[in-house]
Write a structure and sequence with these properties.
79 residues, rod-shaped, mainly alpha
């Protein structure tokens, strides 16, 4: 019973700090996105450096093989 003798139920909503939950969620999402972007950049940098390092020599090697095939010989002195 209430103070005045009537039956009633008082419900009070608790104060939920939703701003801090939102900030935590945004931080977690930000860290995950940074990890994904970092991984993509790392793969792209490796791919680029691999082709810069080995691309020219591979092109030269393939050009030498193509020239050898065009000549129809088995001369491997240039390869």
């Amino acid at each position: 019973m209430g103070k005045d003798g009537k039956n009633r139920i008082n419900t009070e909503q608790p104060n939920i700090p939703h701003e801090s939950y939102l900030a935590s969620y945004v931080t977690a999402l930000d860290l995950r996105l940074q990890g994904i972007i970092s991984l993509i950049i790392e793969k792209a940098m490796f791919h680029t450096s691999y082709h810069v390092t080995y691309g020219n020599s591979l092109k030269t090697y393939l050009a030498q093989i193509a020239a050898m095939v065009r000549k129809g010989g088995n001369d491997e002195s240039g390869v």
